[in-house]
Specification:
Elements: H1 9-18, H2 23-41, E1 44-47, H3 49-64, E2 76-80, H4 107-114, E3 118-123, H5 157-164, E4 170-174, H6 181-187, E5 190-193, E6 214-218, H7 221-231, H8 249-255, E7 266-270, H9 280-295, E8 299-303, H10 311-326, H11 348-359, H12 362-375, H13 381-402, E9 407-411, H14 427-431, H15 438-443, E10 447-454, E11 461-467, H16 473-491
Parallel strand pairs: 2-3, 2-4, 7-8, 7-9
Antiparallel strand pairs: 1-3, 4-6, 5-6, 5-10, 9-11, 10-11
Helix pairs in contact: 2-3, 7-8, 8-16, 10-12, 10-13
């Protein structure tokens, strides 16, 4: 019998619709895979096995009765732990929310259920989405399925690793400065940050409200489009939600399979996102992907975006400032962890201080302090205000570039996956890992990361990032699917078919949470 965990979400959906496979069979296959390899990978913080089988059985029963079902009915899905789920813990990777079960679902989770998908569980992440490696999770790091001694990216390393390790056909992630696209790059998966406001943030535990965006993680561009179609759309519970009627991203991906899909497409290479500091193998695979695009009829144009040089600096003022405000709600009073001071009077202020000290990790504390300082009297204009002005300049650079080209491209990350601990001692080195992905968040434009091969130095995945104008998400899917098709013709199949066999790996199975 076909290994159901190796199928794309679209192929699995076809089998389910045809009645050749039941949802219970598909769900059990993925739960078995999780049980087999997740002690090593640690992609999941919570696995909802009983609920998943129950949901799958209900969907099978409705299918047998002839009830109308969604196109992806019965397909399993993983959910990043930043999203509220009424029947599973939602911790955002933090001790301060350990064991917390929300009384409601995030809008995107509700849409998954309404579309008859089967939630498998919640995936690991950097605490409150602060990080580029998933080493900052309070519950231990996730490991890269390509090399268990390396990081799977962050903050959504759990979702990317679950997809890459064949533990889930696709997953939901969130992207504040690259937390979908950068993990996709280092795990050989596909990740999309939609246009800001195109997907509801209601029920997503906030990091930086003007930057956060929920999006799909998958193994193919088409699968990302199918999941994007499910979660997109206006939500009255989200004040930043756009009222647009969105085209089908899956249909846009299918359009990319035409032989002439790339003919006449103008592809802009961002000069500032492809220079010094990039790994040689990353640049080599990026240049080869550009040659494939050009060979298929695309026009390659170098584009200057001078303000991108200041994107990291602006981002690491805006994000901590918004984070310090958003995380003020974790006060030990309303919900979450509560720690009393060991000595002295038990006052609200002292309980709050003890709780936040015990509940927040080092990186969260660092960013709260930085953000509070940037917003303090006398420094607001010098830091936060100036960063917002740079943000406007970056948005103008995008607008000017899109007058000349249809999409912008860059490597998704400057290097392949680095080893655990390699950048923990130097926060700035960690922050610079998002240098290519941050501009899209500051401007609110959509971005897609997809695999373009393995770096010759270390045999690890390399990703390319595509960026389009706001509201032009469908353009990413057409061009991304066209490039994916060219690459798979060259490779003889999906890149993940070349990944190591995790079932033969035993080295970490007995070391829970260890690196």
């Amino acid at each position: 019998m076909t290994d159901l965990t190796r199928l794309s979400a679209s192929a699995l959906a076809d089998l389910l619709t045809a009645g050749e496979v039941s949802s219970v069979e598909a769900t059990r296959a993925h739960l078995d895979r999780i049980e087999s390899v997740d002690a090593d990978v640690h992609a999941f913080l919570h696995v909802a096995a009983e609920n998943a089988i129950r949901t799958a059985a209900e969907i099978d029963g409705r299918r047998a009765a002839g009830d109308p079902l969604g196109a992806l009915a019965g397909v399993p899905v993983a959910i990043k732990d930043v999203l509220a789920t009424h029947d599973m813990p939602s911790t955002s990777g933090s001790r301060i929310l350990e064991g917390w079960i929300p009384p409601y679902d995030a809008t995107v989770v509700r849409k998954l259920r309404e579309a008859d998908l089967v939630p498998l569980g919640k995936t690991n992440m950097d605490e409150f989405a602060m990080g580029s490696s998933t080493e900052h999770s309070a519950y231990g790091p996730t490991r890269n399925p390509w090399d268990l001694e390396r990081i799977p990216g962050g903050s959504g390393g759990g979702s990317a690793a679950a997809v890459s390790a064949f533990e889930a056909p696709f997953a939901l992630g969130s992207d504040t400065g690259g937390s979908i696209r950068q993990p996709a790059a280092v795990t050989g998966s596909v990740g999309v940050k939609p246009t800001y406001g195109g997907v509801s943030r209601y029920g997503a535990i906030a990091l930086a409200s003007s930057l956060d965006q929920v999006g799909p993680v998958s193994r193919t561009v088409l699968d990302a489009g199918l999941l994007h179609d499910v979660i997109a759309g206006h939500d009255p519970f989200d004040s930043t939600s756009l009222t647009d009627t969105w085209p089908s991203m899956a249909d846009a991906a299918r359009a990319g399979l035409r032989d002439d899909a790339l003919r006449g497409v103008r592809v802009g290479v961002v000069r500032e996102l492809n220079g010094e500091g990039f790994q040689a193998g990353v640049k080599q695979r990026f240049d080869e992907a550009l040659a494939l695009l050009q060979g298929a009829g695309a026009e390659i144009v170098e584009v200057a975006a001078p303000s991108f040089e200041y994107a990291v600096a602006a981002y690491y003022l805006i994000l901590p400032a918004e984070a310090s405000s958003n995380l003020a709600r974790f006060d030990s009073v309303r919900f979450g962890l509560r720690v009393n001071p060991e000595e002295g009077p038990v006052t609200v202020e002292r309980v709050m201080a003890a709780t936040r000290d015990a509940g927040f990790g080092t990186e969260v504390k660092r960013r709260i302090i930085l953000g509070t300082y940037a917003l303090s009297a006398g420094y607001y204009d010098a830091y936060y205000g100036s960063a917002q002005k740079v943000r406007t300049l970056i948005q103008r650079d995008f607008s000017a570039a899109f007058e000349k080209v249809d999409v912008l491209v860059s490597p998704s990350a400057p290097t392949t996956a680095f080893r655990f601990g390699e950048k923990l001692a130097d926060p700035m080195a960690m922050y610079l890992n998002d240098i290519t992905t941050i501009p899209a968040n500051l401007a609110g434009v959509p971005g897609m990361g997809l695999p373009i091969g393995l770096a010759p130095e270390d045999g690890l995945p390399v990703g390319m990032q595509l960026m389009a104008p706001a509201r032009a998400d469908a353009r990413l899917y057409t061009i991304g699917a066209a490039l994916e098709r060219l690459l798979e013709q060259q490779w003889g199949g999906p890149l993940l078919s070349q990944a190591p066999d995790l079932s033969a790996t035993e080295m970490f199975a007995s070391e829970e949470g260890a690196v």
